[in-house]
Specification:
By secondary structure, the chain is an alpha+beta fold. About 20% of the residues lie in helices and about 30% in strands. It has one domain: Nucleoside Triphosphate Pyrophosphohydrolase (Alpha-Beta Complex).
């Protein structure tokens, strides 16, 4: 996502964990199949998002944006994520969902998410089956983000934009939908106590043993997906 306001300069990995949600149930495997997700979005339950509005970092004008939550249909569903390039002026090096600011030419939030995913990582719309959207998430920099959940048919060829994306990787959905991997943090900045989640992930493959530190808005939107699926 291409945001214009930098976040506070600190390494979130240095902020202590104040709690882990091991007391919550994980989403059962049968609820994380493509057909189960299709049915869930066709007939959504009554539920309440847990994370909706972050505390503001600035008084900038609100701006619309959208991200894609791309679930790849492998033997088990995986979530496709990016690592932002180090030369980005905002959120450099952070794990993110493909997406960004809404253009005037976009028809709706779905159009924004699909366009941005194609521009950032080369994901072609023909491989994407949109399931639905989750409630908007407002960042501390006043971006009003619509998360668009979609299934992605394997066989796609990705072409990351080197000016925006340093890496593309996948995380098993079952890992992210298990609250035992959801860590809670809080930190005071400019006199305001801010709270967020992190979901650190290290691949089991020896060729991909790098820790992927998922946190902030990305983790908040994934937590809302968890609440939607567990409701």
């Amino acid at each position: 996502m291409s945001f214009t306001k930098p976040l506070p300069k600190f390494d979130p990995r240095t902020i202590p964990v104040i709690g882990v949600d091991t007391h919550l149930s994980d989403v059962p495997a049968h609820a994380m199949t493509p057909e189960s997700l299709r049915q869930r979005f066709r007939h959504p339950p009554l539920w309440t998002p847990e994370h909706s509005v972050e505390k503001k970092f600035s008084d900038r004008e609100p701006a619309l944006a959208a991200v894609l939550i791309p679930l790849v249909m492998r033997d088990e569903l995986t979530l496709l994520l990016t690592e932002r390039a180090d030369n980005m002026t905002t959120h450099s090096g952070q794990v993110a969902l493909p997406g960004g600011r809404t253009d005037d030419s976009d028809h709706d939030a779905v159009d924004t998410a699909l366009r941005e995913a194609h521009e950032e990582i080369g994901l072609d719309r023909t491989h994407v089956e949109v399931l639905g959207i989750l409630p908007t998430y407002v960042t501390g920099t006043a971006f009003i983000i619509t998360p668009v959940v979609a299934l992605v048919r394997p066989g796609f060829a990705l072409q990351p934009n080197p000016f925006e994306v340093a890496d593309i990787f996948e995380v098993p959905l079952r890992y992210l939908m298990n609250p035992a991997h959801h860590q809670r943090h809080e930190h005071e900045f400019e006199g305001v106590l801010r709270q967020w989640l992190s979901m650190p992930y290290t691949g089991a493959d020896a060729d991909d043993s790098k820790e992927r530190y998922i946190w902030g808005a990305t983790a908040g939107m994934l937590r809302n997906l968890y609440r939607f699926l567990i409701a």
